[in-house]
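worker-3 :: picked Branched-chain amino acid transport system ATP-binding protein
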Amino acid sequence: MSARDMIVVEDAIAGYTPEVDILRGMSVRAGHAEIVTLLGPNGCGKSTLLKTIAGFLTPRSGRVLLEGQDVSVMPVHRKIQRTGLGFVPQTENVFTSLTIRENLQVGGHHLADRQVRERMDELCAHYPVLKRKFNDPAASMSGGERQILALARALMPRPRMLLLDEPSAGLSPKMLGEVFEAIVKIRDKEGVCILMVEQNAMEALRISDRAYVLSMGRVALTGAAADLMDDPQVRELYLGGRAA
Ligand SMILES: Nc1ncnc2c1ncn2[C@@H]1O[C@H](COP(=O)(O)OP(=O)(O)OP(=O)(O)O)[C@@H](O)[C@H]1O
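worker-3 :: tokens ->
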């Protein structure tokens, strides 16, 4: 483990029922101000890995460390309170009947009122769409705008680590570009460690520092994102044979 490692998973074995292991000796790490992408076929355990890091699942063996602290058995609500971890699930990640302002307030519910106002101002400056629609219900936002709101809500308490489950799911190429730009800003402006699952492999690798290709609950390949984009096996399996 290096000093800059923020999220470390060591040899994790985990599953939803006692009989079936979905993670079968999984080891990954992600560092400060780094975007790390998890790729792999449907059902290989990408979302399960995020849920294990977030604390929705407890590993049967192996460890999950956040900033060096062993949090393997810490339940999700405590992790959110006590560690600098944020989680943006794939679906139902904004409250559509609440306004943009109210969604952000939900994200900042542990903060003092003044801190909430300051943080909302900061995030509205980073992501102008939030300011434009500040008092409108989130239901009035497009898919990409909702995804940016979900990211901003998770950023309200200034997490140092962020888990993103398919942030570009269901988005048009233009909206995907905007959401990925928002993710790069989170890394570059706030130094957040981002571990994300993505189906849009080529686009995700372009903004990532490193990536893991998972297969059947284990790491099959890992490396710098730029190297993986050049890897013939990765190109064939995940990039539709396209050259980077
Ligand atoms: N709540 C659950 N209860 C039982 N089994 C589950 C549950 N969620 C997922 N699984 C199983 O765990 C395995 C891995 O699922 P997971 O969602 O982690 O895959 P994934 O790599 O994220 O796939 P996808 O790319 O399709 O989202 C699958 O076989 C799935 O059926």
